[in-house]
């Protein structure tokens, strides 16, 4: 029963890593950690430790890589903050798609105010979207690796 619950949590986390409505990588890491802690023994605690390490690495890596990309392109954190705030507001105004519309629109408006050039604001917004894509890919990759570690452990126990 625990394996099924963890598998469902991992599935939800993987979807969340792509859709970005829930912190998918954190959900996967937590589910695998709980499985390891409940399973116990050398295998369980080893899997739990790997889950913690991979989840922490994903959290750090996605912000470092996306931040470096944005810094090289000259997009300030303030624009992303405005985009995030408007994305959250958009999520409640237009469920699900409002998050994306609000983030893109907010980032564009912040860059338009800063740069005073619609073309440059569109380019900066495109860079912010690419950085978001980088973050999503990093989170998804680490969540998939964590899920594979868990699956390998489950199969080794069952076989």
What is the gist of this entry?
Keywords: Membrane, Transmembrane, Transmembrane helix. This protein is mostly helical and 159 residues long.
What spatial form do the alpha-carbon principal axes imply?
elongated
Average pLDDT taken over every residue: 94
State the share of residues found in helices, binned by percent: over 70%
Largest sheet: none
Taking Cα atoms only, what radius of gyration do you get, to the nearest Å?
Answer: 19 Å
> Structural class, from helix and strand content?
mainly alpha
Protein name: DUF456 domain-containing protein
Pfam family, one: DUF456
Transmembrane segments: 33-61, 81-110, 130-155
Organism: Aeromicrobium choanae
Notable characteristics:
159 residues; 91% helix; mainly alpha
